[in-house]
Amino acid sequence: MIPVLKRELVIIIVLLVALTLLLHPDMLNHPVARLELMHNRANYAHPLLYTLVIYGVVGVIRGMAAVVMRFRNKG
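^ that's the sequence the OP posted. Answer follows.
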């Protein structure tokens, strides 16, 4: 159970970092300015919401791939 949770947590963190860098490329040059802007606007939830939506999409794709692999291995 713990290895599964660790794997899923790593996937969520990788998605969060990847989405952050894709949506806000200035995060590499001026991370403090971006974090101050987020703090001033009180936009704390949107990165997590976007990440969870993409995690759900990735989860559906992973589930479909698991079903396909299960049928493929039986045949």
